[in-house]
Structures are given as C-alpha cells and as structure tokens.
Design a protein that fits this description.
about 90% helix; about 150 residues; 5 helices
Length: about 150
Amino acid sequence: MAVSIALHLLAAVIWVGGMFFAYMALRPAAAQVLEPPLRLQLWVQTFKRFFLWVWLGMFILLATGYTMVFAYFGGFGGVGLHIHLMHGMGIVMVMIYLHVFFAPYRRLRHALVIEDYAEGGRRLAQIRTLIGLNLIIGLSVITIASAGRYLI
C-alpha cells in the first residue's frame, strides 16, 4: 500500500504541478518576452516534453488508484465518498487531457509546420483554457485526497 500511495502522489504532483508551473509562471513570462512565432515554438517543445510525463503519470495514477481500491479496500463499495469524488474527477481530467493531446495540440503542431501563427495562437488559447480547467480540477482532487476523509 505504501508504494502505491507514494507513486500515486508523485504522479499527481508531477501532473498538477506541471500544469501549475505552465499556467502561472511560463505562460505569463513567455507572453511578455517572446513574439508569437517563438512563443508557439516554445509551447510545442514544452508540451512535447511535459506530455510524455503526463502519459506516464496517467498510467501510474490509474494503475495505483485501482490497485489500492480493489486490492486493499475490496472495491469501490469499501471506500469513502472522497475516493469516489477523486476517481470521478480524475477520469474527467484524463478525458480533458486526451482531448487536448489529440485535438488542439495536434492542430497547434500542424499550424507551426505551415507557419499559420494565427491558427496556432487560437489552438494555444484553447489548450490554455483546457489546462486551466484541468488545473482547477487537479487542485480540487489534491484537496479532496488530502483532506476529504475529514471533510466529507
């Protein structure tokens, strides 16, 4: 159980922390100092690296989460409401990420290849909105995971 919890927490911290850094630090700094073509290239390169970690994190989160629920608690009937909330919100985060990766991120990369910076900017704005949403959900999940048993 200790290994599952540790891996689960590390994967969550990497995913949510990465979104927090990108949204709260990198985004405003890049907007302030880089012209749109360079800013879009920076984001594509950043996402290329970060999204590999998100794929790994999602796998670890799902594997460790389901392992804990089924191996240690006997299924979802044996866990509290906070675990159900964490699970449901985590699935929503996965769905949002999959949409970002397979739709606007793919279109952003294509826009850069054809040097359509206006389209790239639109796709980056769409990604920013969805990452902002996922960040809010992720921070909520962390709050529920850490304090949920005492609140709910």
